[in-house]
Every structure is written in C-alpha cells, then in structure tokens.
Amino acid sequence: MTHRSLFAIGVLVLALALPVAASAQHGGPIEVPPSTLTVEEGNIPYLQTRAYGTQNYFCQSNGTWKLYGPQATLYPGNVPFQIATHFLSPNPEEQGLPRATWQHSHDGSAVWAAKIEEAPAAGAIPWLLLKKVGTIEGTIGGGLLAQTTFIQRVNTLGGVAPGVPCAPNAIALAPYETDYIFYRAEKKP
Q1: How would you class 149 by CB atoms within 10 Å of its CB: exposed for 0-12, middle for 13-18, buried for 19 or more?
Q2: pTM attached to this predicted model
Q3: pLDDT for res 80
Q4: Which tens digit of pLDDT belongs to each residue from 22-68?
Q5: What is the Cβ-side half-sphere exposure of residue 94, based on CA atoms within 13 angstroms?
Q6: CA separation (Å) from 117 to 1, 37, 130, 135?
Q7: Which of 172, 182, 184 is nearest to 66 (CA)?
C-alpha cells in the first residue's frame, strides 16, 4: 500500500470518527460532577476524547515532587486513531508563559488553557475545568481545536506523584488516562 493510500484511509477514518465523537455530545449538557466543573452557559461540547500518557514530575531540592507537565495522546471515543497530543508549551498569546497545550494531529490547530476549577479524585489526579487562554489555527486550515472555549478533564485514572521522598533532580513519569471534553461557543441561528 502506498503512503498516499494510507493517508487517504486515515483521513476517511478521521472523517467518520469525529462526527461520531462530537455528535454524541450534542444531545444536551454533559453532567460532570461536581457542579464546580460546570462550563459557562452559551458553550457546548463538540469533541470528547480519551487520553493516555504520563504526568511528569521532577524532584525539587527539598526532596518533594513537582509537576512539570503532561505528555499524552488523545483518541476520539473508541476509535484507535490519534486525534491530538497534550503537552506543556509556551503560549504565544501570553508572552510564552508555559501552559497546558492540546494540538490537533492533522490540522495543526492548538489550544492553550489555564485551570479555573478542580475537584479531587480518589487515587488519581484531580478533575479540572480549564479555560482557553490562547489558540492558533492549523497549518492546513480547519482549526478544529482553535474554536475551543473550555476543556473538562474528567474520569481520571493514575497520574499522581510518587508517595515517597525523592533525590534532587530525579524524574518520575506517572502513567494516567482521562477524558478531555472540548467546548466551543454555541452558534446562534
């Protein structure tokens, strides 16, 4: 099979997967306990993904762990097709301030977000509500993630820092998985 054929198959799978992942969310607001993680009115979910990756920690000079960012791959629903990556990067709209970043794997669009609320999760990293603080359009047009206004991180598993003291400059990569739900402003008719 040629590279062009593989690319065409990938585009077809993506075209079929995205509406399924997004359309399941248009039936109304997603109930996400606790209520502190509720997205402002006027925003609707347009993409739900499952992420698999690591929460990355380094050991500070006092022997405690400090989070320095995530590294994860996002998939739409149950489709085994990468849709985005998640990492820490400088936000161009905030003079390069490091922020949580999601970048679309196909159109190159990206969104940077800042935490505005969190809720604890037993034995896992907290659930979060994040608000957009920067976006860029994709290099090939489309800009799927550039329309994001809010992101919820829910249904977390793992990702917590090791529970033991550490040696300065040590690194720990804590496996985690979660759902990321992306919201956009509701389009008025």
Answers
A1: buried
A2: 0.82
A3: 86
A4: 333 333 445 566 678 999 999 999 999 999 999 999 999 999 999 99
A5: 16
A6: 48, 6, 7, 20
A7: 172
Q: Could you tell me which of 145, 14, 129, 156 has the C-alpha nearest to residue 77?
A: 14
How much is the pLDDT for 10? 41
Tell me what pLDDT residue 32 has. Answer: 65
Cα distance between residue 62 and residue 67, in whole Å: 14
Structure tokens at 121: 């999760």
Cα-to-chain-centroid distance, residue 37: 15
CA-to-CA distance for 34 and 117, rounded, in angstroms?
Answer: 10
* Rounded Cα gap, residues 71 and 56, in angstroms: 7
Q: Which two tokens stand for residue 90?
A: 């400088």
Cα gap 127→124, rounded to integer Å: 9
CB 99 within 8 A of CB 131: no
- Between CA 185 and CA 107, with CA 26 as vertex, the angle to 5 degrees is 60
List for the chain the helix, strand, coil content (%; round to 5): 15, 50, 35
Report DSSP state, residue 170: -
Residue 36 CB neighbour total at 10 angstroms: 12
* pLDDT single digits (tens) 84-126: 999 999 999 999 999 999 999 999 999 999 999 999 999 999 9
**Contacts of residue 148, Cβ cutoff 8 Å, sequence gap at least 6:** 102, 111, 113, 132, 135, 182, 183, 184
Written as six digits, the tokens of 104 are 């679309």
